[in-house]
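Quick one: C-alpha cells for this chain, please?
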Amino acid sequence: MFREAWIAGVTEHFPGEPKPGYITPWADTPAWERDAATAVYDQVCTFLKATDGAATKLSRDQKSRFVALCWIGQIFKHFPEPKPSYVADWDELPDWQKATDADIFERIERDI
C-alpha cells in the first residue's frame, strides 16, 4: 500500500516525467526500500492508533513531516553515511515530495 500511495503521489505531484526509480513497482523495489516502507507504514499506523485516530486532525504539512521524519530514520538505519540529500529536513524537500508524503499518511488513515 505504501508504494502504491507513493507512486500515485509522484504521478500526481511530480513536475514533468518522474525518474523511473520513483515509479518502480513494489516487486522490483530494492529489499531495503521495501523494509523501510513497511516500517514507515507501521509507524504511521501506530501513531494513528496511539492517538485513537486524533492524529487525523493534523494539517497536511504535519502529516507530511511525520512521514518524512520516519523515512529519514529508515535511511539512517540502512545507510551508515547517507548522502545529505537523502536525509534533508522537511523544509528542504521539494513541494511534490511534501505533497506525496501527506498523501501517503492520508492513504494509511483511510486504510486503517
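The chain is about 60% helix and 0% strand.
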